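Batch 3, record 17
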Amino acid sequence: MEQVLINGVVLAVNYALIALGITLIFSIMNILNFAHGQMFMIGGFVVYYLYGIFKINYFVSLLAVVIVLGAIGWSFETFFFRRMRRMATREENSMLLAVGTALLLENLALSIFGEKQRGVPPVVTGVFRIGTAYLPAGRLLVMVLALVLIIGLLLFVQYTKLGRAMRALAQDREVTHLMGVNVDRVAAYGFALGAALAGLAGGLLVTVFGVNSGVGNVYSIKAFIMIMIGGAGVVPGAILGAIVLGFVEAIGYALLPGSITYLLIFTGLIIFLLLRPQGLLGKPWG
Amino acid sequence: MGIEVEQGAVRAGRVGASSGSENGGLTRGQKFQFALLVLALFVAVPILLGHSPYFITVLTNAAILSFISLGVWITFSIGRMNLAQGAFALVGGYASAILATRYGVSFWLCLPLSGLVSSALGALIGWPVLRLKGVYFAMTTLSLTEAIRLLALNGGDLTKGATGIVNIPRPGAIKIFGLTIVPEFNGADPLPFYFLACVLLVLGLVGVWRLSTSRLGWVFRSLRQNEDLATSIGINVAKYRVIAFAVCCFMGGIGGAFFSVFHQNIYPATYTIADSVNFMLYCFLGGLSYIFGPVVGAFLLVIAFELLHAVQDYQALIYGVLMIVCMLWLPNGILSLGLRHVSKGKG
Amino acid sequence: MTVALLDVQGITKRFGGLTAVNSVSFSVEKGAILSVIGPNGAGKSTLFKLISSFVVPTSGRVSFDGQTITGLPAHEVARRGVVRTFQETTIFKEMTALQNVIVAHQLRSRASSFGVYFSSVTARADEERFRKSASEILDYLGLGAVKQMVARNLPHGHLRALGIAVAMAAEPKVLLLDEPFSGMNIEETEAAVKLVRGIRDRGVTVVLVEHDMSAVMRISDRIVVLNFGTKIAEGTPLEVQQNEAVIGAYLGQADEEVGH
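Prediction for the assembled complex:
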């Protein structure tokens, strides 16, 4: 019982990082980042190579993740999505472009990293006991780091100039533009930040689960599920969705064999969406 | 100002704002194109490429992938991005496999039955899910592809889990009054499958074309362009959405059944998210406003993929780059290139 | 004694803590033109959506031709003859004007879906009927010249007329016009007033929501006044003009506009 709770918390906090990243991009730019899972995966590989292979300090490799994924996110916005926006085509086109970026990253990763599952040595060793549950120190570290990052993000969005600009952009693009904010620049930073968050989550979880180049779609779907449950485009929704998914996964994997957990999650999700299509905290779409 | 008369549009088999004859007849340009396609498929290819099983197989794949994508095209026409077609192809494939291996049902019955099974499931799931729009629908259908894969994985004795169903028998002969109308498909020769695939494609094209130009097609278009307005003039939006989706799933199911017999096996991993995405991409690349869109898209991409075989390791990567290039520089699809008088983004 | 064709009884809509429409009741006689007026935010548009079933009421009842239509799906309400237009110019953007109106004949179809697909004799007869009817409606509404123009390219004033044309094609018995005169100058309003009268003369009962006081006063048989979701007055134009509550609600605006 306690083990399940501990697992749930660890998962929830890390998943929140993923959910917040995709929510950020969606709220600022109204684009669903289909490549979010691939960005997560690339983050894992960056840590694998820098920390795992080249034995560089773990935290430095996390910094590298931010730089690499930030650059990728920035490039996507600047070279792809901005262009698409200027072209003012059908609404589906942006979505399709997002799907295309996912395809691109997926195949890029496959070409560069190969197919094999990779793991990294633990950053810290040791195990804590909490009641009847075990909490490996590595997982605790990852959880704490994720928490720190989440708090950092929330503070950033609330108090810094750029963060506030992003919030303004999420609320009303037109007005923000009229207020003199360089919308293009903020959007690019927003995408960079969202991508970096996904990558960081990957860099953290690679120490727990390892990584392989096929894991992108899996995590994209997790991200989708979280925002569908919590409500797309709203920060509390992302966090709520992460909590729900984290705990449902923990409980599910403890009680049920392998893939049935997700089968139930999907079934539950569809039924949930029938009753509340905008998610728990989302605004009614339309 | 300017009255838009889309003469050029007619030539590419385009169905959209004001093309062809509103009563559903074919214009001369469209008849010509279609005849050309039939000729190419049934005559030119077998003569020119019949000696190479490899090419025939590639074209067979392209033909059925086009067929399946035509289904996705229909959901595009009601304004939804459908990323679940992989799921329904899987359902069709399993339906056919189970009927054939467990109950000894002839392939010729399995084929339509698989379509019906997929269609029924599609209608059931679609009824609630189609209320969602835009990204929400896309996310849900994407998850559906995964969910059906998991269902197949955990289907116990029925689907045989990860091992899948193998040794699916090839189509037998169709005999009427002792006369062999269709000979038994033997293993060595891919041509019978090729012809079957082309027949399905042609039937699919005709069927979808007829749907699109009939008043049902206009109802679908009204759903895409303004659901509220459609409701206010008495159109039962929910019903027609489900009909469109059910037809889409029908085509997915038939395609899946074909492939399961073509490859003589089916596994949970036979159709993944990548496949659902591909079906959509074929439509998009060809051009969403054009019925021939999915066909052009599928054939081009499948053939291109094979041609890139030489670059082996980077095949998929170049593929991905091509995708993005097309999206950015050809947002209305390839078929929009050939037309002079057309304005953007119609359909 | 004329029978009420449309009967609104105690219709209420609450969104969370906000009461948009508060127990509004009125009835519309067959062949009448009734206008619903009120300051901005008075709940007029919500009222329309409630009547046509686009929004579900919190309580209350609407009946049409003696039968309750509350709770029916919106397309069913339209089928029965209560058709609404939309405030924003709402048309099928990528179809021509003619196609817009032809599609709107969907309710008048005699052929089955099967027949439509296989182009049966009935289906083809339908299409012919629809084309003729659509053409006639467009001519009647002054859109004869732009039949083949793609709706997206039509000038603003024509879009409004097209919206009405589409609604007319659905053979309404009651037509709910949402701000038909908005944004029009004096000539356009005059033409629109004639149009609405003409529609009524064709046998359609008209209920309209509007801001333009002069048009409303000229055209209406009866007027219902809403303020903050509640009905504050009902009567003939003359009665409403002199009603103190109404004048108060408009805070002097009514003084300028009424009685042109």
